[in-house]
Design the sequence.
C-alpha cells in the first residue's frame, strides 16, 4: 500500500497551545496536501506543498516538507477549540497516475 | 461557486436495491473522484475521472459503477451491495489531477 503514516494518531492540547502533526510517505511525490475533516463531514483542503518546496504558510498553519526523509509536518499555532478535527496528509505520487492517497490521520482535540 | 454538492445526504438501501449517488460541481474542474470512508479511517480512493474519461479504478467491485455524463456531473450507481459497503461516500473535484481537491459533504450509506 502507498498509504502514508501519520503521528500522533491522537493529540489533545489546550487552547492557545501549538499542535504539530507528522506525516511520512513511501516514494517520490509530486506534491503533498493537508486536509481537515470535522466529524463525519467532507474534507477541507488546507495547504498543498510541492516536492521542490520546503515550507509553506497559510494563516496559523505552517507546513514543512523534507523529501530526504520522506516526511512532512503540519504546525497549527495558537490553537482554538474550533480547530478540533481530524487532519490528514495526502500524497500525489509520481508513479501513481495522479492518485491522491490519504494517510491514516491525526485526531486533534483542543480543549477550551 | 466553490462547492461540490452531493445528493442524497443519507441513504438506506436493501441488498437487492439499485440506487445512485450524485455529485455536481460548477468550478470548471476536469478531474472528479469517488472515495469511500469507514469510521475512524482515511478516505480510500475508488475511481478517478479525468476529462470525463475513467482514469483510475482501484479494483472496485462491479456492484459499484461510476458514470460521468458531463464535466460537471459524477454518478455512482449501486447494485446488490453488501452490509460491509456501508460507509461515507465522498465525491471530490480538482482543476486537474495533481491539484488541490474540493470535497462534497458526502453521502452516508447504510446497507441493510
Sequence:
Amino acid at each position: 500500500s502507498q498509504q502514508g503514516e501519520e503521528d500522533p494518531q491522537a493529540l489533545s492540547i489546550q487552547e492557545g497551545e501549538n499542535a504539530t502533526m507528522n506525516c511520512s510517505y513511501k516514494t517520490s511525490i509530486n506534491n503533498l496536501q493537508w486536509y481537515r475533516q470535522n466529524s463525519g463531514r467532507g474534507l477541507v483542503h488546507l495547504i498543498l506543498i510541492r516536492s521542490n518546496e520546503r515550507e509553506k504558510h497559510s494563516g496559523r498553519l505552517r507546513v514543512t516538507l523534507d523529501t530526504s526523509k520522506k516526511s512532512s509536518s503540519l504546525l497549527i499555532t495558537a490553537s482554538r477549540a474550533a480547530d478540533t478535527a481530524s487532519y490528514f496528509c495526502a500524497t500525489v505520487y509520481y508513479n501513481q497516475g495522479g492518485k491522491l492517497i490519504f494517510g491514516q490521520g491525526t485526531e486533534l482535540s483542543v480543549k477550551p | 461557486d466553490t462547492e461540490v454538492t452531493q445528493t442524497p445526504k443519507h441513504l438506506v438501501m436493501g441488498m437487492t436495491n439499485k440506487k445512485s449517488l450524485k455529485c455536481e460541481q460548477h468550478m470548471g474542474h476536469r478531474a472528479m473522484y469517488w472515495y469511500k470512508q469507514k469510521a475512524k479511517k482515511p478516505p480510500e480512493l475508488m475511481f478517478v475521472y479525468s476529462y470525463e474519461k475513467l482514469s483510475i479504478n482501484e479494483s472496485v467491485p462491479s456492484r459499484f459503477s461510476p458514470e460521468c455524463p458531463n464535466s460537471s456531473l459524477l454518478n455512482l450507481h449501486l447494485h446488490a451491495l453488501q452490509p460491509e459497503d456501508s460507509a461515507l461516500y465522498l465525491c471530490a473535484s480538482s482543476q486537474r489531477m495533481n491539484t488541490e481537491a474540493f470535497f462534497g459533504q458526502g453521502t452516508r450509506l447504510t446497507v441493510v
Summary: The two ends of chain B are 36 Å apart (CA to CA). The mean pLDDT of chain B is 95. The interface with chain A takes residues 4, 31, 33, 41-45, 48, 50, 55-56, 58, 88, 90, 92, 97-106, 108 of chain B (CB under 8 Å).
